[in-house]
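$ ./design --mode recover --in tokens.txt
reading tokens...
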């Protein structure tokens, strides 16, 4: 799993010498479509104060005794097109994870950016508000446990959205993920949101979502990393056994999730929280499984900037003073419970404290300290981690 020093050095050097431009790079006008190019490169470093598990291992079976791991987290390359007319399209690929990102076409009705139909692969409306927000503006290095564990990622499908600047309703039907050997199982998703207060530096938003899908192959596995995205080992895990009734990878039919979300912005302060509950229907007389989780986070822009609002998610702007950059302090509490009845997946709660520095138009530096508590039956594992991220985007 570890990235070689030479590879990491080349990636960071390329970020540092690249030309600075916040907006995407305009390429050409082809067939009436204004084509542009975007990119996002993230390099992570984690150092663990581990309890019982070797989280610095190259894989869950190849233990090396190290207490740190470093690796490129993302290397996203995205082509976008506007036009002809009210059409828009996007073609995205993550070279690090070797998978397709957004690959879709959208038609906007009239001049309303919140009234459209979309076909292709896109983030499902049944995902969390955090997942629907831009990855480059994550508040913390690891997204919440409900986003990573209970949310449904990008899928191929069709979506219809109707709304205005402060409200919207979305529905989608979806199938598998475009990249082969990834997520499968067809289903549908719904989301609605409303911002009764939506002014500059003063936002209040509430929303709810529902998703229902086939578990595909009569199996589903739910597991959570210890708030560290690139480690291979998960202590909290509902199991991979295809024979044991205590494993969700055996005799399941459908899975659904219900989510609620809230957001409040007041000047340089942002408070955000989400709750998600999942229900897995099981066959052959086995009791259904219920799991849930939530997070609450607070951010303070100590340099005074505020947030915007678009399509039901917060947006992060540029620093007021590019030379000094925008500084943020953040705190998050996160919890997830994957134990129900005979399925003992475990429980995890964590506290993350972080500082972010957006420098000029293209760079972001993140530093987090995470305290994690995990229980699974009579077992415990309580690692702490110091996490850092260097990001370049254009």
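writing sequence...
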């Amino acid at each position: 799993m570890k990235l070689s020093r030479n590879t990491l050095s080349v990636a960071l050097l390329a970020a540092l010498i690249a030309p600075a431009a916040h907006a995407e790079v305009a390429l050409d006008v082809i067939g009436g479509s204004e084509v542009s190019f975007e990119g996002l490169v993230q390099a992570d470093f984690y150092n663990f104060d581990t309890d019982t598990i070797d989280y610095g291992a190259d894989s869950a079976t190849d233990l090396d005794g190290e207490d740190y791991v470093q690796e490129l987290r993302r290397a996203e390359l995205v082509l976008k097109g506007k036009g002809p007319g009210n059409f828009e399209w996007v073609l995205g690929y993550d070279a690090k994870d070797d998978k397709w990102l957004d690959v879709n076409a959208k038609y906007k009705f009239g001049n309303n950016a919140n009234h459209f139909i979309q076909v292709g692969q896109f983030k499902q409306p049944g995902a969390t508000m955090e997942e629907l927000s831009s990855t480059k503006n994550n508040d913390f290095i690891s997204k919440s446990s409900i986003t990573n564990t209970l949310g449904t990622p990008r899928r191929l499908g069709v979506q219809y959205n109707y709304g205005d600047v402060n409200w919207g309703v979305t529905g989608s039907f979806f199938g598998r993920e475009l990249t082969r050997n990834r997520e499968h199982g067809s289903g549908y998703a719904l989301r609605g949101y409303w911002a009764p207060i939506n002014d500059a530096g003063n936002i209040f938003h509430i929303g709810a979502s529902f998703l229902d899908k086939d578990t595909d192959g009569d199996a589903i596995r739910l597991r959570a990393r210890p708030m560290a995205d690139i480690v291979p080992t998960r202590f909290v895990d509902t199991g991979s056994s295809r024979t044991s009734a205590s494993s969700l990878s055996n005799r399941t039919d459908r899975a659904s999730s219900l989510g609620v979300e809230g957001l409040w912005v007041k000047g340089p302060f942002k408070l955000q929280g989400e709750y998600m509950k999942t229900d897995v229907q099981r066959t052959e007389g086995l009791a259904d499984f219920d799991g849930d989780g939530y997070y609450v986070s607070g951010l303070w822009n100590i340099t005074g900037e505020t947030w915007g609002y678009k399509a039901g998610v917060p947006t992060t702007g540029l620093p007021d003073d590019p030379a000094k950059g925008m500084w943020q302090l953040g705190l998050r509490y996160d919890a997830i419970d994957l134990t129900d009845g005979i399925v003992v997946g475990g429980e995890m709660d964590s506290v993350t404290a972080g500082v972010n520095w957006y420098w000029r138009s293209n760079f972001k530096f993140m530093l987090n300290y995470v305290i994690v508590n995990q229980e699974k039956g009579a077992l415990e594992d309580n690692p702490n981690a110091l996490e850092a991220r260097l990001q370049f985007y254009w």
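exit 0
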